[in-house]
Amino acid sequence: MSLCAWPLLAYAESSPLDAAVLRVSMLDPVVVTPTLASHTTEASLASVTVLDEKQLRERQPHDITEMLRGQPGVDITGNGAFGKATSVYLRGTGSSSTLLMVD
Predict the structure, then answer these.
(1) What region, left, alpha or beta, does residue 73 occupy, with left being phi > 0 and alpha being psi -120 to 50 degrees?
(2) Beta bridge partners of 54
(3) What are the DSSP calls for 57-90, one per residue?
(4) Strand, coil or helix: what is 13?
(5) Would residue 47 count as lying in a domain?
(6) Which residues lie across from 101 on neighbouring strands?
(7) pLDDT below 70 — which residues of the chain?
(8) Which residues form the TonB-dependent receptor plug domain (predicted)?
(9) CATH number for position 81
(10) Per-residue model confidence (pLDDT) at position 76
(11) DSSP designation for 45
């Protein structure tokens, strides 16, 4: 028997994974602010919008502007042709006051 087959034999003889090991638990979303203080979205003093994986899969955006389009208080302005600069404005602020965090 070649040495290459030993890992396969070891894997075949191992016991199947226990269901408790495979259990996945979801944690509450945490907002990380520019001051590096972390808290839940409910405890935030600012208006926070979270787009989760389910929403992104439903929308299937091609870029971040499509993802943000239609969010309350968000205005997106494209400057020029496709691929050129795009500005994101939050209600009452300029584009330099907008913080966009992608995880």
Answers:
(1) left
(2) none
(3) HHH--SSHHHHHTT-TTEEEEE-SSTTS-EEEEE
(4) helix
(5) yes
(6) none
(7) 1-23, 29-48, 83, 95, 100, 103
(8) 43-103
(9) 2.170.130.10
(10) 83
(11) S
Question: CB within 8 A of 100, min separation 6: which ones?
Answer: 64, 68, 88
Q: Within a domain: residue 41?
A: yes
3-state DSSP assignment of residue 31: strand
31 CB neighbour count, 10 Å cutoff: 16
What is the predicted pLDDT for the residue at 93?
79
Residue 3 lies in a domain: no
Q: What is the pLDDT of residues 29-38, one digit of tens each?
A: 666 565 556 6
H or E segment and range at residue 51: none
**In the prediction, which pLDDT does 31 show?**
60
| 7, 13 contact by CB (below 8 A) | no
**Residue the block writes with tokens 């396969």:** 8
Which pair of structure tokens corresponds to residue 73?
Answer: 């208080």
Considering the domain boundaries, does residue 1 fall inside one? no
Residue with tokens 């989760």: 52
Domain limits for position 47 = 18-97
Quick one: pLDDT at residue 1?
Answer: 47
